[in-house]
Amino acid sequence: MSKPAAKTPPTPRYTSIFCEFMAHFHQKPEPYPKDHEFEENDLLAITPNDIVRWMNAKAFGKAEPDENSQLVGSSWSSLGFMKKSISFFMPRTAPWDPIEGRGNPTKSQEVKNLLLRVKSIEDNRKKGPDQMQAQQQSVEEIVTAMNSADGASGLLQKIQARNSEFIQTLETMGASIASLGTSIEQMKSSLESSNNAIAEEISNQDSASTSAGEQAKMAAFISELPDAMGLASKMQEDVSKVAESLQGFMRNPILLSPEMTITPSLSGYCAFTEDGKSYDIPAGFIFPQCNLHGAWRHWLTGFPDHKIRNNKNEIIDAPIKPLRLVSLGNVHQSAKKKFKDGWRPILIFMQTEIDQDLDSVPMASVDEAFIKMTYEQAMSALHRKAPSMTTGKNEQKHVTWKVATWSRKIREEQLGPTQGAQHRPVIPLPPAPVVHVVPQAPVPRQAQVPPPAQFVPPIPTNNMQLPSIPDMHPDDMRI
Fold first, then answer.
1. Does the CA dihedral 355-358-361-367 come out positive or negative?
2. Is there a contact between 98 and 30 (Cβ–Cβ < 8 Å)?
3. Are residues 330 and 280 in contact, defined by beta-carbon separation less than 8 angstroms?
4. Which of 14-28, 118-132, 281-295, 406-420 is the most confident on average?
5. Greatest CA separation found in the chain?
6. Roughly how many angstroms between the first and final C-alpha of the chain, as a whole number?
7. What's residue 444's pLDDT?
8. Residue 402 DSSP SS3
9. What are phi and psi of 320, to 5 degrees?
10. Is the dihedral angle over the CA atoms 180, 181, 185, 191 positive or is it negative?
11. What pTM, to 2 d.p., does this model score?
12. CA 276, 337, 119: angle at the middle one, nearest 5?
């Protein structure tokens, strides 16, 4: 094997791939042995086209695939490794010069284009049939809207109105972001001034002075320092307002599905019916990226300000009930996974840890004070039962976690080998039937004794009582 000087020895995999490529290059039916020595002239004769034809055969099953050919073999990452393997043995390291016909052929535009083509095909595959079907459905929905009474002109007017609304939202967000930028500069300036004052105070302090007067003076000085956590909390509120504004806009689609109807209930919340199925969470709803306190508010109050655009281009109120009252079966498939995995685990845990029975609390009593009180109760229980989530390395991190992170963490806590057992419900099994065996007299060996009859449990009748397994409500099974 020809090995370039001043390089580390090639890996066995590099050598194996290169020997296979050289066999293809020389049109040999079998790969070269790994200890084969190649002449430098053989290596200099390799062109980008030789490498592309071999890689085409590895990826598409043929050296010259057409534009409709599908991948049947090596993936993009595998081809990249093959490229590196061949490049290792090339005597020249400079990029390939197509005019001079010299350089490293693996560093050519032809090889690069092939890898990009394979990567593009793989990316399209990752979309999957569901996304392809959704794209097709979107086209069908547009065609349906164009064929309606409003026609294409009406659809374009809806899109135009939607864009105008988005422009207004962006203007509002821009003002909020500008205000946020000002708050950041003010916070930075305030903290810098605070640090300068602290440094001066430290230099003036007499470490031996412990009089009451000096302590009172120091306490007064510290109390006047800006509260960094308070400033950060205010900034977080501003950021949340911007994010909520954008999320609210995203939850307001251009077109309402022609098959969807919205029906207000007596409780004031809406039911969304599509394809004969009623949902509490409609298709297209996007759960906001909020912190745990915000998620707890939605758990208790739902989305009372939720709006949706109907097919008449009207924005109408469509409040969503408290999430604690929403079962998974009544969540549209497009939002079910987010609700099931990203919201419910931590919120169900919190509900089971508060003192109040939420089902008996009227909605009129669920105000900000109630939300805060129950949230603090739940968090206290969380600190006791899963201290690792809020202490140690997570002491600072948990303040910034979104609800999805909390749900993932609580699943890890409850499903771990040490804590999982205490959270899993134990279902009692029915007692095994008792069989009474009557002793028999010993039988002489020479006697032929038929095998003893096996016990057969009696068949239940209408008059027979059997042990039962207690019913388990799905909410009793903590995720």
1. positive
2. no
3. yes
4. 14-28
5. 112
6. 58
7. 55
8. strand
9. -105, 135
10. positive
11. 0.41
12. 110
Comparison of pLDDT for 431 and 46, the residue scoring more: 46
Q: How far apart are CA 233 and CA 184, in angstroms?
A: 12
Provide the 8-state DSSP code for 30: S
DSSP conformation letters of 205-226: --TT---HHHHHHHHHHHHTS-
Residue 285's closest CA among 262, 314, 313, 312?
262
In the Cβ-directed half-sphere of 278, how many Cα atoms lie within 13 Å? 10
- Please enumerate in sequence order all residues whose Cβ is within 8 A of that of 254, keeping only pairs 6 or more positions apart, or say none: 158, 159, 162, 309
Token pair recorded at residue 48: 């980008």
Predicted local distance difference test score (pLDDT) of residue 472: 43
Q: Is residue 382 within 8 Å of residue 349, measured between CB atoms?
A: yes
Helix (H) or strand (E) holding 316: strand 315-317
Q: What does the alpha-carbon distance between residue 302 and residue 248 come to, in Å, rounded to a whole number?
A: 14
DSSP 150-208: SHHHHHHHHHHHHHHHHHHHHHHHHHHHHHHHHHHHHHHHHHHHHHHHHHHHHHH--TT
Distance separating alpha carbons of residues 3 and 90, to the nearest angstrom: 9
Q: What Rg do the C-alpha atoms of the chain give, in angstroms? A: 36
CB 320 within 8 A of CB 303: yes
Tabulate helix, strand, coil % of the chain (nearest 5). Answer: 55, 5, 40
By three-state DSSP, how is residue 397 classified? helix
Residue type, 246: L
Angstrom distance (rounded) from CA 299 to CA 301: 6
Q: Which residues pair with 281 in a beta bridge?
A: 331
128: left (phi over 0), alpha (psi -120 to 50) or beta: left
Work out the burial of residue 140: count CB atoms within 10 Å of its CB; fewer than 13 is exposed, 13-18 middle, 19 or more buried.
exposed
